[in-house]
Amino acid sequence: MKRRPAPGSQMRRDGQSGVTLIEMLVALALFSMIGLAGFTMLRTILDAQERTEGRMERLARIDTALRLLASDVETARPGSLSWDGATLTLSSEAGATVWTAGEGGTLRRGLSVPGASEPDTAPEQEVLGGVAGWEWRFMAPGDAGEQWVPLWPPETAQAERPASPRAAQAVLSVALGAGGTVQVSRLLLPVQSPPR
């Protein structure tokens, strides 16, 4: 049994008991490094999630624009589709529609009232920003078979000109943030004229 020192006398310290200041500082430094590593990892995960969400929103906007464009082309009246290299014009039962890639790289859609052949002065709808360019090509039937042409209606004699292309392909060059510009294409099937 150990003896207790008498009150008022000085206690001797055993070399193994307690924590020294150096040990405490080492423990604090280790816990600080572990905490810093955890914070850095959490920050990296949150940054990656934020970038991914931004890209997903951008892709959703691009997909929405392409769906709207496809809807307009696929419901257009036969023979109403026209592409001059800058503007896509078409008409349907809902009225005339004009698509343009305007200043600042914004894809715009203008609508008119039903029954009109040209869009009126209704405000344009900004469908998609960050458009670096857009192109169309159309599959035109011909004597030598079908071929892709860059303009519609094709530059052929009026009697030979088909009312609608067999297919149309839209190619959008869009910015994806810091990732640069990518090309997105969509193949569309316009309504065909009934056979004569």
TrEMBL record:
PROSITE patterns, sorted: PROKAR_NTER_METHYL
Xref: InterPro entries: N_methyl_site, Pilin-like, T2SS_protein_J
Signal peptide coordinates: none
One family name in Pfam for this protein: N_methyl
Predominant subcellular localization, coarse grouping: membrane
Chain ranges passing through the membrane: 21-42
GO biological process: protein secretion by the type II secretion system
Subcellular localization: Cell inner membrane
Alphabetic keyword roster: Cell inner membrane, Cell membrane, Membrane, Methylation, Transmembrane, Transmembrane helix
Membrane topology classification: Single-pass membrane protein
A single Gene Ontology CC term: plasma membrane
NCBIfam families listed in its UniProt record: IV_pilin_GFxxxE
Full protein name: Type II secretion system protein J
Gene name tied to this protein: xcpW
